[in-house]
Amino acid sequence: MIQDITTKTKALIDGLKGVCANYGLGNDGNEYKIITQAFLYKFMNDKFSYEVKELDPKLKNAANWEQEVAKYSDKQYDMLLLRMGPDSAKLKREHFLSNLHNRQNSEEFAKLFDDTLRDIAIFNNEIFSVKTGRGAKVTLFDELSNYISDSSKRDDFCRAIVNQLVNFSFEKIFHQKFDFFSTIFEYLIKDYNKDGGGKYAEYYTPHAVAKIMASILVDKPVKNVTCYDPSAGSGQLLMNLAHAIGEDRCTIYSQDISQKSSSMLRLNLILNNLVHSIQNVIQENTLLNPYHKVGDKLMTFDYVVSNPPFKLDFSDWRDDLDTKQNNARFFAGIPKIPKKEKDKMAIYLLFIQHIMFSLSPKGKAAVVVPTGFLTAQSGIEKKIRQKLVDEKMLRGVVSMPSNIFATTGTNVSVLFIDKANTKGDIVLMDASKLGTTIKEGKNQKTFLSPKEENRIIKAFNEHKTEEDFTVVVSYDQIKDKKYSFSAGQYFEVKIDYVDITKDEFEEKMKTYFENINSMFVESNKIEGEIKKRLANLKYE
Questions:
Q1: Strand pairing class (359-370; 297-298)
Q2: Which helix (H) or strand (E) holds 424?
Q3: Whole-angstrom Cα distance, residue 352 to residue 299?
Q4: Whole-number Cα distances in Å, 292 to 126, 133, 280, 281, 446
Q5: Most buried residue among 37, 79, 83, 247 by CB atoms closer than 10 A?
Q6: What letter would DSSP give residue 307?
Q7: Same domain for 161 and 70
Q8: Are 202 and 258 in contact (CB under 8 A)?
Q9: In order along the chain (540 residues), what is the average pLDDT of each group of 10 residues?
Q10: Domain stops at, among 141, 176, 211
């Protein structure tokens, strides 16, 4: 059944993309809004249907529940809405998808379609709005028909969207959990949130990396904890973390400068029963204007995950960060503005420092970093590593295979931080040789198998040493290696000894000397030939 619904769900998404292509919006900058919002409208309709049937057996047993609920008085319908959970979308009867489908022959159908979605957004504004840093609310739905520039085609466009949405119901999937919805979400956004995205947290973290980060961070049951991502993107890291903890055992907080990413994160939260956290989704520049505070101090969190942008030009507001009040947050310094290639400013170093500052006394974090960060012997990188070691906050590092992110050539590692590192030792892992590399479009991409993912998680959480894979070291050992976090520098160098006789030894040495002598003879011949040719050269 699940496979059948998955197939139908993907067919629905493909159908919506086909409608956009037919009306000139294929690969348009606004296509993702139409696809994700139409999908969300369908999802909310079917979930409302599922939930009201659970509340009223009469609706559940009715041949047509919409006709049955139409018989309710206004007071009875209002009471039904009041009985719904605080995280549920509440729909008026005129909001139903069936109502739009039945009124397709109405004049100005596009206006009816847009008005319906806008009224749903207003009716549920307190639950589903994303906030900007200045407090403005970004509502759930846009007026989708306005993305069609030819106004004469808008009615037909909206009819085509509605006809895609009525083909099947999601009602049988609402008992499904994270794995199903994460697959659907990845398929839904796959054309709009490419790996290596470009700016800020539009970077997309592969599922394997997200799973490894969450499984290492959450190695025992916890409850009533806070989770944070300062560069949240579409929220895949947060979703994996919440799933590892339990969606009902954590509250999510996020911030991201991208409007597109924040909208996708909201959709992800809705799909994964984390609606209660939407009020904590903030669209704003985290480094310049961190939003989440307690009083006038930045809020601290129990778990932080992040795949921040690595290099980015932030020269326009770099000096605004260089203030006395940011001295503690950016303790290691702020990257200077280079004379050339400003787009290579190492913005990720600011995110690491912000994350360290945002940890609660027992907080844990997992951060994706360029592997070069592990060994840089000067500058901000070295200062950050020194603080992690000197204050005993480092839990470990996993160096990932190359091409784990499809469109970036940068080798990446995951840095694990534990503000109260109770285990007292550090796991350094070189997983760079794992995975299978295949060609994906024009790029090479490395995929980890479930078995390899579990090997990484198990070895790290059990603090196991494996030859040429993991090493468990002390803080003093890291200091002796000039604060290097590279596993390879701690692997034991092995020399193979072979028992041979005296005659065998002398024969081998004779062969070595003969080889060396022949090299010198050949070298002398070449030198002689060069001298001869030089002597014959004449100045003209």
A1: unpaired
A2: none
A3: 16
A4: 18, 9, 8, 10, 36
A5: 37
A6: -
A7: yes
A8: yes
A9: 82 93 88 92 94 93 92 95 90 96 94 97 91 86 94 96 91 76 83 50 72 95 96 93 94 93 90 91 96 94 96 94 94 93 93 98 96 93 96 96 75 94 87 88 83 96 92 94 93 65 73 64 60 55
A10: 176
Which helix (DSSP H) or strand (DSSP E) does residue 306 occupy? strand 301-306
- Identify any residues that bridge with 365 across adjacent strands, giving them in sequence order: 304, 417
DSSP classification of residue 466: B
> How many structural domains compose the chain?
3
Record the tokens describing residue 393, joined without a space: 């906050």
Q: Are 305 and 213 in contact (CB under 8 A)?
A: yes
Amino acid sitting at position 505 = F
Q: Please, are residues 490 and 477 in contact by the beta-carbon 8 Å criterion? A: yes
Cβ atoms of 397 and 415 closer than 8 Å = yes
**51: CB partners within 8 A, 6+ apart:** 84, 85, 88
* Domain span holding position 226: 183-490
Instruction: For residue 380, give the amino acid letter.
Output: I
How far is residue 176's CA from residue 153's CA, in Å, rounded to a whole number? Answer: 38
CB atoms within 10 A of CB 176: 14
| Token pair recorded at residue 425 | 């030792």
Contacts of residue 342, Cβ cutoff 8 Å, sequence gap at least 6: 313, 315
CA distance 234 to 130: 13
pLDDT of 359 reads 97
Structural domain contains residue 52:
yes
**In angstroms, rounded to a whole number, what is the distance separating the alpha carbons of residues 523 and 539?**
28
Same domain for 224 and 161: no
E-assigned strand segments in 123-211: 130-132, 137-138
**What CATH number is attached to the domain comprising 28?**
1.20.1260
**Nearest-angstrom CA–CA distance, 184 and 20:** 19
Token digits for 119?
A: 């009224």
Encoded tokens for 9 = 């769900």
The residue assigned the tokens 């209002």 is 78
Q: Nearest 5 degrees, angle CA 534-CA 539-CA 540?
A: 140
CA neighbours closer than 13 Å in the CB half-sphere of residue 81: 14
Kindly state the DSSP code that residue 378 receives in the 8-state scheme.
S
C-alpha 301, offset from chain centre: 18
d(CA 37, CA 26): 16
